[in-house]
Amino acid sequence: MNSQHVRLNIPLSFNQIIDIVRQLSPKEKLKLSEVLWEETDKDKIVISEEQKQIVRQRLKRMDEQPESCLTWKDIEHKIKL
For the whole model, what pTM was predicted? Predict the structure, then answer.
């Protein structure tokens, strides 16, 4: 990441910010995502009932059919292939 500091005091639209982010390197994007996550108030994240239900269904399926689930090692192996 470039060590220069740039101070912008101009109004930008959200789309302009997205355009700027798209120009970042993968390493810079990763760092930005880390900063954004750290700045996020986790207590204000809203999870819809639909999303909660999906998680409940998947957990139930995992309990009922553990053989149909992949371990983290299985997933890592598939990703590396």
Answer: 0.51
